[in-house]
Amino acid sequence: MQTTLKSQVIFRGQGLHSGRPVTLILHPAPADHGIQFLRRDFARGEGIVRALFDRVNQSPLCTRIQNQHGASVSTIEHLMAALAGCGVHNVLAELDGPEVPILDGSAAPFVRGIFGAGVVGLGRELRAIRVLKPVEVRRGDASARLTPAEALHIDFEIDFADAVIGHQSRSMSLANGAFARMLADSRTFCRQADVDAMRAQGLALGGTYENAVVVDGEQVLSPGGLRHRDEAVRHKMLDALGDLYLAGLPILGRYTGVRAGHALTNDLLRALFADPTAWELHSCDTRTLAQLPGTALHAEDIPAVA
Ligand SMILES: [Zn+2]
Fold first, then answer.
1. Alpha-carbon separation of residue 227 from 62, 108, 137, 154, 304 (angstroms)
2. SS3 assignment for 16-28
3. pLDDT tens-digit map of 251-270
4. DSSP state string for 238-278
5. Residue 287 has what pLDDT?
6. Backbone φ and ψ of 64, nearest 5°
7. Comparing C-alpha atoms, which of 151, 149, 147 is closest to residue 134?
8. Where are the alpha helices (DSSP H) in 140-225?
9. Residue 87 in this model has a pLDDT that exceeds 60
10. What's the gap in Å between 287 CA and the centre of ligand 1?
11. How large is the average pLDDT for residues 74-85?
């Protein structure tokens, strides 16, 4: 069954790149609406941006979507991950600016808000995208791949020069509350050198040592240190879940990312949908529903930091 929120939920915070205050309101939406953003600072009818892979207007640092009227929404990936991970299929996300609030740099506050509002069934059949054959994309030494699987799995591997991150890998099924329990509280991370470069370009103006894990060599500069020893790879998996949800429906398949990022995951969705023999629409039966992210999400799954 398709779902939406039981009631609206409001988040207030700052845009990571603009540094501007922003209010985000998630509204319940009817079946087959999907996830849509509404820029209410645009003229009526011109502010709707659907959360779909072909609306992505590439940005190297975050996922940004845009409509034909020039209305864009940046840094949608952590909210998209929370919606996917909590099993929410229909929502209208209203914003008064161009960027989703960064909050603590993870998806945990979104998960807590969504869980608090409650998720309700809409009595309409849910369909999923079932991967039928391997699809892979590459850029340099980075790759992203989808292969057939009964339910969504994410495997990820990263390699960073900074010793505090280094080589990290993790593999997991996203069934039920696994996202909330294992990935949701992992924060965006970056190097001090990247922060300096971004600031020089007028980006990351809302970035702080509280809403991003800033590292330098062997040191974590953010107070309190890491939430998990492998917080960096967990955050990359969180990003991948959010970016994959731009398929418009849950995916049944195994995603494998090696040093992948937002752009590569978007390339992967474009490659998948460009090949009609690589996927099919699957009507979810009870067995499939039981394995989807967010099914049987419990309060104990919500991270303590949220
Ligand atoms: Zn991220």
1. 22, 12, 31, 20, 11
2. CCCCCEEEEEEEE
3. 999 999 999 999 999 999 99
4. HHHHHHHGGGSS-EESEEEEES--HHHHHHHHHHHHH-TTS
5. 93
6. -125, 135
7. 147
8. 178, 192-200
9. yes
10. 31
11. 97
CA of 186 to the centre of ligand 1 (A): 9
Helices and strands, counts by H and E, the chain: 7, 20
* Cα 227 to averaged position of ligand 1 atoms, centre (Å): 15
Ligand 1 centroid, distance to 136 Cα (angstroms): 22
Q: How many angstroms separate the CA atoms of 21 and 259, rounded?
A: 32
List pLDDT tens digits, range 42-53: 999 899 999 999
- 109, two tokens: 């506050």
Judge whether 239 and 117 are in contact, CB under 8 Å.
no
Check if the beta carbon of residue 262 is closer than 8 Å to that of residue 53. no
Reply yes or no on whether the pLDDT at 60 is more than 90.
no
More confident of the two residues 235 and 194: 235
For residue 9, CA distances in Å to 105, 242, 259 come to 18, 19, 34
Q: Out of 17, 78, 153, 262, which one is annotated catalytic?
A: 262
Q: What are the tokens at 222?
A: 């953010």
> Could you give the CA distance from residue 28 to residue 23 in angstroms, rounded to a whole number?
17
Does residue 262 have an active-site annotation?
A: yes
| Type of residue numbered 226 | L
With a threshold of 0.90, does the pTM exceed it?
yes
Paired tokens of 160: 């960073």
Task: Convert the pLDDT of each residue in 91-140 to its tens digit.
Answer: 999 999 999 999 999 999 999 999 999 999 999 999 999 999 999 999 99
At 140 the three-state DSSP class reads: coil
256-99-205 Cα angle (round to 5): 95
